[in-house]
Structure formats: C-alpha cells, structure tokens
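User: structure tokens for this one?
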Amino acid sequence: MYFCITKCIWKQIQKHIVQRRRRIQINKETVSGGSGAYSTVSDDGVVQEGGLSSQFFDFFTIAEATNNFSQKLGEGGFGSVYKGKLPSGQEVAIKRLSAKSGQGLKEFQNEVQVISKLQHRNLVQLLGCCIYGEEKLLLYEFMPNKSLDTFLFDVKKARELNWEKRYKIIQGIGRGLLYLHQDSRLRIIHRDLKASNILLDEDFNAKISDFGMAHIFPDHQIQAMTNRIVGTYGYMPPEYAFHGKFSEKSDVFSFGVLLLEIVSGKKNNSSIDSDLSLNFLGYAWTVWKEDRSTELIDPSLHNSNSNKEMLRCIHVGLLCVQELPVDRPTMSLVVTMLSSDSALPAPKNPAFIFESSNSGDDNLLVACYSVNGLTCTNPDAR
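Assistant:
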C-alpha cells in the first residue's frame, strides 16, 4: 500500500517536472525566436545551455526569490520592479511587465537579445529572463540607489548629489553611450535615454538601462526611418519626433537634455519663464546667450568650487540639443569635450524653444514635446 502511494506520488512529480521543462522550452524558443536550445534546469531554477547568453529562469523560482513579489522597488508605465534574492544569495531587481504595458513581446525579445550581448561597466547587467503564460519578467543586477530621477528631481534627495557625484554620473552615461555607438560588437541606438533609465549603484556609478526600444545598426548604416515613434517626449530630437528619422545623433540629443537636467536639477518639462513662454531648453539657451548660465545651476550646488566645470557641461549640453543633427557632436567628441579644457564652438539654436507663441506668426510656433515620463510604446524593435 505504502509502495503504491509512493509510486503514484513519484509519477506525479515526474509528470510535473516534464511539464515544467516543456513549458520552459516553449518559452525559451519564444524569446530566442526558435533558436534557443534547451538543456536542463538547475537547482536554482535556471535553464543551462541555449542560444541566448542570458539565463532563463523558472517563474516559481522568481516568485520565491521575491517572496511572492512583496518588496516593490518602483513602478512605471511598463509595470513594477521588485527586489529579490536568488538561491545563490545574489540580490536582483526584477522587472515584471504589466499585461497592460505597451512593452510587449517584441520589446521584451529586443532587450534580451540586445543587452545580453553587451558588457560595459556603465550598462546595467541583464542576468536573465522569464516568460510564464502572460508573465514577462527581466532580472537585472540590483542597484541600491535606484534610478537617477529619484534623486535628481526630489528636493531633499537632490542634496545628496553633490557636483562630484553628478559629474561622475555624467561621465559614466557618456562612456556608456560611446560604447553603444562605437566600441561594442553591435552599433546600438538606445532611443529612450532619460533620467529614469539611468540606474545608480552603491557608489553612484551610472548604468544605462531599458533596451526595449534599442535599434541595432549595421556597420554601413548611419540613419534609419520608422513610422512608429518610440521613446519619451522631451528627450526626442525634432527629426525623430516629426519625421521618424533616427541615428546616433538622436541619442546625443537625449544626452544633451539629460546633461542640462543634471546640472540644473530641473525636469525638461519645466515651464521656466511664463512671460516669454520658454520651456526648459528655451530658458537654457536664453541664459547662455545672455551670459547668465549660472542661473541654470541647481541652487544646492552654488557652494561648489566647480562652476567652471558646470558651465562647460551646460555649453556641451546645448551643443548636443542643436536643432539639426549635423550640428550635434558625436559621442566620442562629447566625451572628449567634457574631459578637456579646449575651446568649445558656439552652439546654434536648440530645438523646441517655445511652448507657445503670441506673435501670430506661424513660423515662430515650435511644437514642444515636453511631457517627461510619457513614453510612446509602439514597437519597432531592431
């Protein structure tokens, strides 16, 4: 009798294992486009082997690691991020994509296939992924200081970001973008660079994250077009927002906006001067032309002895957000300009200066996409 019960239980366990492995295999093929080769599941719930260079985790392992998704780190339009600890003891951040999120299977596949092939100290490390029914999850290295926007745009927390830390973050983002554009095996255009996609480790080292919108360029290609605009208004250059054209200079524009935000501590959707209807970029351009750039610097930084460095960052930021892509510097030049004392060229008009115009002249009306955090989610992966 006891033997029969034990045998019956063992058969059920074997059946569950087979079903679980078959489900993981199907999900793995979904992520890899059918090229993934399934081998075995380790005690940690990780699929070993396969066409992907990132690991494929079992959903139940993730649920256990997060104590059934109990410790939420943050939430966005894509879903929520939870803290977890793997059986190995490693702490992880787990992005659980919402079924209502605009980030669908294509973006999920794109992120797994792109970032798993990249290795750089200023890019967040993707540790693995999981698909279970409608669930889509991504596992990243844990960043104790969360994202840049949680500090930069909070009056109290912003004081923790002295200029030394901010400059370190700026340099880190610049090096990460330079790697994507020039030094990695793949030429990557991020297309959604913004403060919330810059993660900070315990030492405030910047790591670029969220590659769901990234596009891979062949070596011979310098520009592409799309009818599906993806990214965040406020960080988009005009040629992309209006015409769907994007290139490395699109990321340069986004970096310029981010650079000005880091120096000023202000969001790019700030309406700075109601009398002139100037938006954030318009105000930065005006004070620079009138030799009043110090007015743009975050008041919490005024006791710093690095005004020269801050003013140089404002100047470089304005060079990055010039209206025409051909006028913007490449990231290699940007990194050089930030780290040297050489003379800088005068920037030309940035894009999106005015929020509105009362002049009656339609030629002076400039559309202003400045809704920080609003992300277009129509996929155009790769």
